[in-house]
Amino acid sequence: MLALRSHLAATLASRTVAPQVCSSFATGPRQNDGTFYEFRTYSLKPSKMNEFLENFKKNVHLRTAHSELIGYWSVEFGGRINKVFHIWKYDNFAHRTAVRKALAEDKEWQEQFLVPNLALIDKQESEITYLVPWCKLEKPPKEGVYELATFQMKPGGPALWGDAFKRAINAHVDRGYTRLVGVFHTEYGSLNRVHVLWWNESADSRAAGRHQSHEDPRVVAAGKLFH
């Protein structure tokens, strides 16, 4: 599990279940419109973490002038630290292509943020995801603790595991200790991967709620969906 601190008023945690199967393309049911969300992860040099975040805070307006930023977090605990994670929304692939072209031509963005930060980054990763058909993106009510739970599902997509997984997600939500922000299914990147983004009022309320939820048979049954 990773815990992340949001740099647009949040904190995020992440955990990964089961081994990964990597591919450049994945198929499966998704929402009807073309909107998708790009998950971008940057691994940073430890001594340069604060410098990168300060540069981002100062210049983020240059990037958000081109497309919508859903959130921007750094890892607080769990897994590899010194890492930032952000989600960008696009109307379709043509929209993303246009945005990337505009950024390449944006001298202010290039000179003030991109070029100075390239030397601070060790590794970059990108995944294209869709919201699962039964989920809408929700906005948390206030600042709190975020968790990104990542699951490696059996092949077949939401048509295979969607209903059971939805019941397991609702089992957590129904207990009231957490709030669902979004459930994302990968299209480009690692095959059969699902990211669940949660908001919690505090880390302690999250821990207590998860302890109770593990006694719920719907949550236990969801474990059968993983490799």
UniProtKB/TrEMBL annotation:
SUPFAM superfamilies from the UniProt entry: Dimeric alpha+beta barrel
Transmembrane parts of this sequence: none
GO cellular component entries: mitochondrion
Domain NIPSNAP per the UniProt entry, residue ranges: 37-136, 146-220
Segments for region (Disordered): 207-227
Any Pfam family hit: NIPSNAP
Top-level taxon of the source organism: Eukaryota
InterPro entries documented for this protein: Dimeric_a/b-barrel, NIPSNAP, NipSnap_domain
GO biological process terms, semicolon-separated: mitophagy
Family, similarity comment: Belongs to the NipSnap family.
Protein name from the UniProt record: Nipsnap homolog 3A
Organism the protein comes from: Sciurus vulgaris (Eurasian red squirrel)
Upper taxonomic lineage: Eukaryota, Metazoa, Chordata, Craniata, Vertebrata
